[in-house]
Structures are given as structure tokens and as C-alpha cells.
UniProtKB/TrEMBL annotation:
Keyword field: Hydrolase
UniProt cross-references to InterPro entries, sorted A to Z: UFSP1/2_DUB_cat
Protein name: Zinc finger with UFM1-specific peptidase domain protein
One Gene Ontology MF term: deUFMylase activity
Species, as recorded: Macrostomum lignano
UFSP1/2/DUB catalytic domain segment(s): 211-388
Amino acid sequence: MECPVCGALLPLDERSNLHVDAHFAGGSHSADSYSNHELLDGDNSHGGSEGAHGTSSSDSYGRRGYARAGSGVAGRGMSGGWDIDSGASGSGSAAAAAAAAMAAMEASDAAMARRLQREEDARLAAREAEQLREMYGLTGVSSDQQLQRALDNAVERGSMGVADVYEIQRLKRSANRIGYDDGLSRTPGLAPALQAWYSKQRFTVSEDSITNVLWCRPPADQFSSHLEDRGWGCGYRNLQMLLSSMCREPAFLQLVFNNVPQVPSVRKLQQLIEDAWSAGFDPVGRDQLGSRLVNTRKWIGTTEVFALLSFLRVRCRVYDFRRPTGPGGTHLALFEAVKSYYRGRDTECAFPLYLQHEGHSRTVVGMEMRRNGDNRLLLFDPAWRPATVSGWCRKPSNALSSVRCRLTDLRQPEYQLLCVTGTLAGDEDWHRAKSMRGALMRVPPTEK
């Protein structure tokens, strides 16, 4: 581009702005005073111009605008000496040309900034999309491949021997073939150990003392994510916890388990969800997950659990807590729903509750009631390691800090709670459950 003041040929970058600044620097500075601050290559005289290229001082303007009201500036170009003052009549055309040039450069810079921002936004969006695909198991890596990688890494670290690897592989193949859990991540004794601990305590009559503990019935086993499903299998493991309680109830043992008190494996649960999709349950979820789950690392949530249980003729209810309902952004209504479920089923089985939030799920196995109303949920978590849970079975008091959940501990904006309420005896109810009609309760209710 050409300098609007002296006509010198300028490069198309930031140096052109600084060259023009040298002509319009404030106070007593002139273009001559910038001759020692080369902005281009040292031997570049710009076609015979003075080469007066200055760095901006606190009074220079550059892209921040040229003239302040009432301030006089002076400079000298190729044509000889000249003065610019706020009242000088001869300065109008030069100042206008300079302003126009600067406006053009600013517009070009703004357009480039917008383009660069769009490109950066696109890169961030692509990166986030890939992270989500990885998080939800949509990258094409199978659960079998994840297992093999985990075993290879364990051998390299020395934490597992070759014989251990062969034994795990044998158990996994057997579980996939017969459809029952391999038992590697199952800890059956935690719930009975906790119940026994609470029954032996002599609680005080202080304001925050425990008055009662509501437990799921029959008790549930703890299931932890294992090598092949670590990072994505929490939904399946919580479903296994629920089923471990249901298979101890005679009516459900016959209906759901064909009188075989064995909890299905993760692979079998994936197949059952696909079977439920094929029967017409949860068509939206089926489309979102590409109609395939078996041997994938795709996450499941409340709707998939509901579809599987309904397909097996288990009646469920889903509470959708769409926003906090208590003081301080707490989910008071969720606590009330848990209390109502367990208190309302004194003479019936009261199974564990499936608790879902964004990114994770857990299982409610009971509720600790306190005199002052500051109650605690009692939760099992698939993220716990089996070795840790086994230690808690021997000394259940060590588990309390992990099992107990206060109202203020539920910090997510939304939660879903699934509870089993009975069986779907008739075909009409079974077909109605395909769309969750009548089974979904939004809290607070949808405004009409």
C-alpha cells in the first residue's frame, strides 16, 4: 500500500501503521525524530522517503485514532515541511486521506480477526465433538479391544501375570457365552454389613441424631466397573445392582430371571436392550445410539434401563428432576421422592433406585433419617474398586463417608430417578410402556 502522507510504498502489515504514526505523532515529535527506529529492513528506504518510522509513545495513536480534540501534531514528508493544527485549513485533505486509510486497515483487520475466530471456534467444536464421541463410546473401539489393551498394560506394568490374564480372558468368554456376570466386579456383602453396623449403634437424642434407616429390600450387591467397561459402564453396573436385589424376590425371579438367580452380564444387558428396541421400546434412544450396543462402549442412561425392564414386563416410574426445587439450589424434591418410595412400601419389596445425572449414575440403597430433617441418601457407586469395597465389608464404618450423600452433595442441575413399582401383567400396559406414557413424572410439573 502507499502512505497517504508521503507516498512511500509500505508493506501490508503492522509496520505500515507505525509508519503513518511517525507522521502524526503527538506533541513536539516529528517524522525526523523516528529515523533511528527502523520498522522495516534496515536498508529499506521506501523509494526515497525519509524512512522516518517511529514506535508509538503514550501520545501516539496508530489504531487507537489519530487526533485528540484540541491537540496539535507536526510532521514532515517528502514534499517538505508542513504543520497540522486543529485549525489549519490545509490539513483537511491529508488528515481525511490518512483517516480513510486507517479505517480501511481497521476494517481489514476486523475481518481477519472474525475469520480467525471462526476457524478457532470450528477447531474447538471439532475437538469437543471428538471428546464427546470418546466419552460416550462412539469412536468404534469395542469393549473387547478395551479389555485387551487393559490386560496388556497391566502385564507391562507388572501388576498382572500372564496366568492372571488367561484366567480373566476365560471368565469373560464364559460370561459372554452363557450371559451371566463373571463375578469379578461383584461384592455381595456390603449392604448386609452396613445394616448390621447401623443396628448395633446406640444413637444419641441430639438434634442431628439418626432416628431411622430406610433400606432397600431385598439387599443389593455392589457392582464395580471392570477392565472392559471402565469409563463408560456405570449405567450397566447400576442396572446389575438393581437386578441383584430383584432376583432375590420370588415373583421377579420367575418373571425376569426364569428362576435362575443370576445377574446378566454387561454383554447380555446390551443384547436385551437391543431386543427391547426391536420390540418397539425407546425408538428415540435406539436412533441416537445407532441401533447397536453389543460389544460397544456406548453409554446408557435412564431411558435404556426403563426400556429393558419394561420389555421384561417390569413396571417402572421415572422422576425427571429438571431443576433444583429446594433452598440454595438443592434437589429437595428428589430426597422427598426417595423417602416416599421407601416409606410407602413397608409391606412390599422396595428395590434400589437408579439415580442418573449428566456423566454418571449411582444406586440408592437406602436413606438415613435424622431428627433435624438433614437426611442422607445411602448410595452405591460403580466407580468404587472391588478391593476397597471388600475392605468396607470387614469394617463398614470406613464406608460411611463414601456411602452417605447429603442434600447439598447433589450439585448437578438435573437428575433422573427410576424406581420399580410392580409388573406389567397385561399386553396393553406393556405396549403403553414403549413410549413411557404414564410412567414419566416431571418435577416440577410442566406448566400447561
